[in-house]
Amino acid sequence: MKISLCVPMYNESSIIAQTASTLYGYMSENFGEDFEIIFADDGSRDGSAEIVKGLDLPNVSVVGYEKNQGKGCAVRHSVLASSGDIVIFTDADLAYGVDVIKKAVEIIDKGEHSVLVASRAKHKEGYEGYTFIRKLASKTYIKVLNLFGGIKISDAQCGFKAFEGEKGRRIFSLCKTNNFAFDLEVILIAQKMKLPIYELPAKIINHRESKVNVIKDAFRMMKEIAKIKKNISKMVF
Ligand SMILES: Nc1nc2c(ncn2[C@@H]2O[C@H](COP(=O)(O)OP(=O)(O)O)[C@@H](O)[C@H]2O)c(=O)[nH]1
Ligand SMILES: [Mg+2]
User: Fold this and answer.
1) Which residues form the domain of 36?
2) Which ligand is nearest to the CA of 12?
3) Which residues contact 233 (CB under 8 A, 6 or more apart)?
4) Taking a C-beta distance cutoff of 8 angstroms, is the pair 140, 149 a contact?
5) Which one of 9, 182, 203, 219 has the fewest CB atoms closer than 10 angstroms to its CB?
6) How do residues 188-207 score in pLDDT, each as one tens digit?
């Protein structure tokens, strides 16, 4: 069984060498040689791609493009370039740590769920370290997504997700969203395909300043959802 780990990166030169070696060490230890790590360079201007290539690690590759397009585009590129029986994506700062990788593989490998999403809402300390206002915003936001977006899970935006390989590639082949709303598109397509979704409790281990602007991004997100829903309504499975 081969595991594909996809990591989107945009101007991550300060941490990416560390991330690549941590992931390479973790994957070799747990999966021998049956893995690939694909870094998706989202048009970085700080040499992130060159740093990863320069490490010359076995089973580690870089895909990407020149112009910054957004996380959704980067993740899609790497997932579609993957060939694993299980495909996972996670953030370059390893915000959820590495232990979730093995847990996700175990669950997908059981065969009952072809999609797994990490959820801060399911973890008793999932929102530890969040300011009151960010926690409130995050929780209100998911309620809105549940009510108006048709999302049936407890945390759509978490940056760690895993898929049975062919299902993951099928989902991403139908995705069009380049920006940060792509997570919603992935979930809505999975729901429309009637794929059972497993929610893995997770907490942020590595807090990094977020660029999310609570009010501005909430409005943008509503517009994105409308677009996504229109696109998905035309899909038949
Ligand atoms: N902010 C940002 N991150 C990107 C972009 N493209 C890819 N990424 C990657 O997406 C992941 C999440 O980014 P981060 O800034 O931590 O976003 P947040 O955790 O949602 O606040 C990281 O691995 C980034 O390197 C982009 O255009 N903007
Ligand atoms: Mg982050």
Assistant:
1) 3-233
2) 1
3) none
4) no
5) 219
6) 999 999 999 999 999 998 87
Q: Give this prediction's pTM.
A: 0.96
CATH number, domain with residue 138: 3.90.550.10
pLDDT tens digits, 132-183: 888 888 888 888 889 888 999 999 989 999 999 999 999 999 999 999 899 9
First-to-last alpha carbon distance for the chain, in angstroms, is 27
Instruction: From residue 127, give the alpha-carbon distance in Å to each of 142, 151, 206, 226.
Output: 13, 20, 12, 28
Q: Which residue, chain included where needed, has tokens 């009151």?
A: 132
Q: Is the four-CA dihedral 95, 159, 155, 112 of positive or negative sign? A: negative
Does 77 contact ligand 1 (Cβ within 6 A)?
A: no
Number of domain units in the chain? 1
